[in-house]
Design goal:
single chain, alpha+beta, six-stranded antiparallel sheet
Length: 182
């Protein structure tokens, strides 16, 4: 399973169309820093509650979430940054503890150890700046296990939505947040 840049860009635009509320607004944005044909990615900015006892002095964090086509795996990946409300970045370990707790709250099945094994730090493929990201090494197997073979090619909005429904559990449910107005 793979996505071409054109397929990913079309799927991301289709997903954004699903996220728009009745007033034409969305918490998500489709960015394209090199228009018209450059790579696109979805962006969500949110302030989220930190579950009790995860970080003793922090009760909310800022999350910057990007859904990007990974250039090597040619599949979607979530790149993100977490910081305190004052702007101090969180460590990889603190981010993993928060993501694990959010996954459990959204009835996800991602354990803390599994999360740590997929959490990476690297260069954003479009912005060329450091981000944490969920490594896409298992994305193909995941999509193949949840989608019928007929829906695996070409890569479409349905494919992206199915993947984000599972990967987004680590952020407290990105799909439920994105489709709540529908």
């Amino acid at each position: 399973m793979y996505a071409t840049p054109k397929e990913f860009n079309q799927a991301a635009a289709g997903l954004l169309a699903l996220m728009v509320d009745a007033d034409g607004a969305s918490d998500w944005v489709l960015e394209c820093p090199l228009p018209p044909l450059g790579p696109k990615y979805l962006v969500l900015r949110r302030v989220m509650r930190v579950p009790d006892s995860i970080l003793p002095v922090v009760d909310h964090v800022q999350c910057l979430i990007h859904v990007v086509l990974h250039p090597t795996y040619t599949l979607p990946a979530i790149y993100f940054r977490m910081s305190t409300l004052a702007g101090s970045p969180l460590s990889l370990e603190d981010s993993a503890r928060i993501l694990s707790a959010w996954s459990q709250e959204s009835e996800g099945t991602v354990s803390h150890d599994m999360l740590l094994s997929t959490l990476s730090f690297g260069e954003h493929p479009v912005l060329a700046t450091p981000f944490l990201y969920l490594h896409p090494c298992m994305t193909s197997e995941l999509l193949e296990s949840i989608l019928p073979e007929a829906d695996q090619r070409p890569f479409t909005t349905k494919t992206l939505l199915a993947w984000l429904g599972i990967a987004g559990q680590m952020f407290g449910g990105l799909v439920s947040a994105l489709l709540s107005s529908h």
